[in-house]
Amino acid sequence: MPALHDLQSDFRRFLTGGTPEQLFGMVDGLGFDPEARLSIYRNNTLSTLSAALKATFPVVCRLVDDRFFNYAACAFIQENLPISPCLVEYGSDFPRFLAGFAPAADLGYLPDVARLEWAINRVFHAPNSEAPIPIASLFVVQGDPAQIRLSLEPATRYVASPYPIDQIWRSNQPGDEPAEMALDGGAVHLEIRRTKELRIVRLRPAVWIFRSGIAEGATLGAAAAEALAIAGDFDLAPALAALFDAGLVVGFQ
Fold first, then answer.
1. What is the pLDDT of residue 219?
2. Which end of the chain, N or C, is more open, meaning fewer C-beta atoms within 10 Å of its C-beta?
């Protein structure tokens, strides 16, 4: 009798397209082929996970049509089974997968649209908003202010792309009439927020570098240095004030 861990590993391999003979030998087919009986679970897994990906990436699906999306989703699922029981958390690696998916090689904008949709998914499912703090809270800080790390509103994400992915996303909402897609709009640096409704805002590159750095845990000094590296006229004082005025700061260390 194989160990439970071995049976579980064989079943996982079967779900992703493998043919583990040891597993088939453990199945009482009751007159049917054991592989055919187990295929019910494989088909249900593919169907459920494909539907979860389609719910998270509806614009990507619309851009490539259902058949291509299902083909890509199947290939993705075979390499990426969920690690969490919560399906809204499934698909974080789908944008990266699309970037290396040969049949989509001519659709350079597609992985970035997927990154935007994943960011939207995370914003919608982020914890409830925390109360913002005023900039005066920093007045009590002792020591080097460049070493301060700000905590931003959880329902906020930052995505940049050489393509106008916000326009692509807005013009390809499910249920709307198909719109002509323009790819010549230039690079975008986006802040995605959830207030009373979803907000996707374009930021200047230096401001985006500053805010996204802070969101990733950089100190004020490090985030400002990154911004200055791409824009010599970046001014920390108004950039910091704007961050607090927008209600994005909920704490600091």
1. 97
2. N
